[in-house]
Amino acid sequence: MTEMPSGEYDPDAVEPRWQRRWVDEETYAYPDDPVDPNTVFSIDTPPPTVSGSLHMGHLYGFTLQDFVARFERMNGGETFFPFGYDDNGIASERLTENELDIRHQEFERREFQAKCREVCADYEEQFTENVQSLGISVDWDHTYQTIEPRVQRVSQLSFVDLYDQGREYREKAPAIWCPECETAISQVETEDDEQGSHFNDIAFTVAGSEGGDGGDAEEFVISTTRPELLPACVAVFVHPDDDENQHLVGESAEVPLFGHEVPIVADERVDTDTGSGIVMCCTFGDQNDIEWYQVHDLDLRVAIDESGHMTEVAEGYEGMHSSEAGEAIVEDLDEAGALLDRRDITHTVNVHERCGTSVEFLVTEQWYVEMLDKTEEYLEVGREMEWSPEKMFTRYEHWVEGLQWDWLISRQRSSGIPFPVWYCDDCGETVVAEKADLPVDPLSDDPPVEVCPECGHDEFEPEDDVLDTWATSSLTPLINAGWDWDEAAEEFTMAHPELYRFDLRPQGHDIISFWLFHTLVKCYEHTGEVPFEETMINGHVLDENREKMSKSVGNVVEPEAVLEEFPVDATRYWAAGTAVGDDFPFKEKDLRAGEKLIRKLWNASKLVESLAPEPFPTEPEDGLRELDRWLLAELDAEVERLTELLDDRAFSKARDQLRSFFWNTFCDDYLEIAKQRDDDAAAYTLRTAHSRFLKLFAPLLAHVTEELWHDMYADAADDAADAAAGTSAAEGTPLADGASESIHLTDWPEPLGVEADRDAGTAATAVVGALRKYKSENQLPLTAALDAVEVYADVRGFEDDITGVMHVDDLAVHPDGDAPVETVITGIDLDYATVGPKYGDQVGDIEAALAQGEYELDGDELHVAGVTLVDDEFAVEEERQYQGEGELLQADDVVVIVRNEA
């Protein structure tokens, strides 16, 4: 048997040692051999973007995932817990550009991609070390990158399959465009941003409205925040119910400064509550402009290019940035007398979530996945999953119901997975790569045909766009399950079909519309089923004032600083402190509470080892005492409660309940009693309970439980395993895959089925606690004898435990609980929040009557000073009083009277 090390627990030495050992020994490896699909638990972990270092959100999110992985690994069977990196998107591109001080446009695509790989590899190596330092039980042999060839093949297979199904199309149409990143983006990549701006009231004239006598032309006002779009104006709209301006419909308007004429049209989409109620349509300022352009077959005037600069349509403003042009146009409007008013406003602007740049709407040729025709179907698919917490389904529902665009999946970047597509140089026919050839890069690989199947032309134009990163990361369940095309069987197969559908998708609530929705769409279209049994949605870590952490604000808490001061297990304790899904403030006191629990567990373990030196004492032949049976029965109930809570992902309740039971029931009650016993029953109970406590704490406090298990139980477990196999540990038989060494590979505790009078045991420990407190307050040693104690509760069967531990000479038990005490009212507390507003000046009279005892209680009503208060307006203070011989002790609901002449 290995002795526990003496002294205090040293997490600085213990935690890194176990982290290295878990990785080196592949403790959490998923087996290569076939696994029973009924026992495997598979987790589809989110691949973080490679764009920097670990932040508190990573620490929190990874730890929540690890709680599930460690619990399910012990409670079920094999657990598949992989890790991935999303390194094929704009984040990696921008990281590379910033790191090397270059722009992707300066290089051939393959050359730039090679640079991205080098930069990302360095960041991924450091990130991996950071995640391993959190003690996350990932199977590092199942790590993937979204840019690696295997994943590129899966991503391109997905494109080809959806194309074959008719779910993808290429179209020249208005698309959301980021001028800073110079690429099309999808609706999901935009977010609202409150920005300061100006409302500009601009005078338009009705074309041909000058009178014959040379009088002034008829004018009307349009209010706009985007004067730079004046050269792109193609129509003016009036609401059909706008009687005041209805006479304008059918006329033409002259656009100020630019002079071109546009039709004035009636349309119900006009917002009559904003500005003058007359609006201009520009191609394009927003979604309304796009709808008007399509419905009314308007002209196309593109005034802003891909980089956010003005085109030749803007005439004298050509080449200016759009923001600069807007200011110049306002000045010129003012000089021309067409600027009637200009006022400051704050409004919501659509920006690219990656860079914060206001988006534009440009007509470009892009690839789309058709989605708008199946939104109801996708809602039903979402309902098939279990949502933890359930309220998060509402976010998913709102996103799907608010979809306005099909999924735009093409990007004008260098970093990314190429579209496996060529176009006939003559007729434009689309030619898609063969599945067997994937992955391909059309910029360097030949098309699968010699001539165009449509027109016979022999020259092709390669597609130079790349797939949106979400088009690949949305395939993580299929990537991890080994989804591929079997050429011989002509069907899609999976290398690990037992993983799919995945048991759990953990992720943050901010990417429900990004990752979760797109994964459901992709996997559903490829397999016909929802990819997950359950999704667990975590919230965000805020600062202590409940504000979002931001480097610009200076309120960011860095994980490195936290882990330098506190043990990893303390951060795990902190991470379990909030209901899943809720945003929560970072509070250092939770880390300190975690440290205290670690110390308590360590010190209690040393005490258990000293009281019960044999690792696995057998249950004595004459059985256990009632108190022993009570503890194990209580622990059975705790195991059942805790298992249910962890199944429900209620980590906060599980943490607090387990801590309370261990600290109060085991340490303060049973362990204090067991310290004064020296018998086999106590030793057996201590070891049985303690080993089970270590397992219950293991998913939460991964390192200290592993250290204690290794020091106190692993050797004995090895001996037992070797004995069962007919060998001996002394013969040097190696451990089978190191399995018996790790607590995290042991079985989750099952109830032992111990029968006991749990109410009586709880009352008995309350009596012992009250007597111990009595001795302490009266400066008596714990071994001091007490002459006589009366207990008014049913503690029959526990008398010997009370008398033996607390040295009571004469114990009298009154099981009916009819104690000679009187409950008296000592005061009435008013709820001033309700009583004050309701009774006003009468409150003083009510207080005076209560002080004089001039009131009457009638059930839940209080009659005082001529008014009647109901039960939520007051609270009664009560106290037990005893007039007999001896001293009344308070022991929860148990009455204890001590008579001691010493």
Automatic annotation (TrEMBL):
Using the record's annotation, list all stretches that form the Aminoacyl-tRNA synthetase class Ia domain. Answer: 18-584
Q: Which reaction does it catalyse?
A: tRNA(Val) + L-valine + ATP = L-valyl-tRNA(Val) + AMP + diphosphate
Please name the CDD domains in this protein's record. Anticodon_Ia_Val
User: Which SUPFAM superfamilies would you find in this protein's record?
Assistant: Anticodon-binding domain of a subclass of class I aminoacyl-tRNA synthetases, Nucleotidylyl transferase, ValRS/IleRS/LeuRS editing domain
Per the annotation, which location comes first and is thus the protein's main one? cytoplasm
Q: Which domain of life is it from?
A: Archaea
Q: What residue intervals hold the motif 'KMSKS' region?
A: 548-552
Name the GO terms of the biological process aspect: valyl-tRNA aminoacylation
Designated name of the protein? Valine--tRNA ligase
Q: Which organism is it from?
A: Halorubrum trapanicum
Its taxonomic path starts at: Archaea, Methanobacteriati, Methanobacteriota, Stenosarchaea group, Halobacteria
- Gene (name only): valS
